[in-house]
Amino acid sequence: MQLTTLKSGVRAVLAPCEAESVAFGIFVASGSRHENADRAGISHFIEHMLFKGTPTRRPIDITRAIEGRGGNFNAYTGEESTCFFAHLPSEYLAEAVDILSDMYLHASIDKEEFARERSVIIEEIRMYRDEPDSVAAENLQRALFPRSPLGAPIAGSAESLAPLTPDDMRRYIASHYLPSNTVLAITGAFEPDRALRLLDDAFPRGYRKARPFSAAPVDFSLPPEAHVSEDKDVNQTQLAIGYRTFGIRDERKYAATVLDAIMGRGMSSRLFQQVREKRGLSYDISSRWQFFADAGMFTIGAGLDPAKAEKALAVIDREIERVATRKVSRSELERTKEFLIGNFRLSHEKVLSKMLYYGTTVLTFDRLVSTQEQIDGIRAVTSDDVLAVAKDVLRPQNRSISWVVPRTK
User: Fold this and answer.
1) Annotated catalytic residue, options 18, 20, 47, 277
2) 277 is a catalytic site residue
3) Which of the following CATH numbers is that of domain 2-202: 1.10.3720.10, 3.30.1050.10, 3.40.630.30, 3.30.830.10?
4) pLDDT for position 409
5) Of 97, 119, 243, 396, which sits with the fewest C-beta atoms within 10 Å of its C-beta?
6) Is the pLDDT of residue 37 over 90?
């Protein structure tokens, strides 16, 4: 495994391993929090448009070149990054690098494709607006990060997308899709020296020059909005609880990850046992700790019978109070740590998961973070660490609650 800087200034992670396939990804430090209000959703829009052709490839040519070799490719946009990736049989690494680099560097942004894809994204937004758990989560994030791009929907809105033009998108790419903002990652069966030659040829020196854009930091002096609620034509109440937290570089991240697993990861977690198994108040309940550069959020989500929603909230609150006031037992702590480590190790048997891990961590930390470093970080967590982070984070002043409730008929 190695991290190197290409002639272009782009960083590249090479992690060969025993496999029948190879995965290649392009990671860009450009996401929804880097957008101004009048450009909300443009990062996600760019993700879509890079699949819509280049001067030498039609959209169908791009698709057939990957799928016609038995591979698959996709992309995703988050708050702080966008990723484009392909996974193919190992003999097709050159094709993967050629196609994805062409998309990244030479996207046509055709006017007709632009208009058509904007309509597709608006339908995607409407689709998620029809999902009550997505609505509750989106409203919760807006409440946790008031007046911050971190609280804005990643896809933007029909109103923010409407005035965008192909030239707006080209200018945004030119100012954000930069060598200093980009990480390449290859995992699987490949020869590293050949891979480096392919990457150096695909990403020429000086392909773009601009000053990197810096996102505004989260203003922690603005308190989260305590409660938000929306009514929809649904039968079930959707509850989302969130706490605004510290960022990914905080040394407490490992204790936070263990706390998350104790509370709501898997069927053995406290919330699943207390809310579903013992009381039958929800079909599914889970938690998630998500980190950003300078902030984060710990969230709990559940779908509930409207008549039992307040009772379920009371049970959840008791579990929150318990974990913030009493140390977790040694047996529960060790069981949870083994759960996390086992999941992590199993995920790294997959070539695609390895590639996503290495690309994301280098983009975040500007260095290689080995799997052993992650495992050691989890193993080092103590009961005192978990209690300390729970006391610090699970406070009323850090909290928002989001409800989606059935519309009164």
Assistant:
1) 47
2) no
3) 3.30.830.10
4) 66
5) 396
6) no
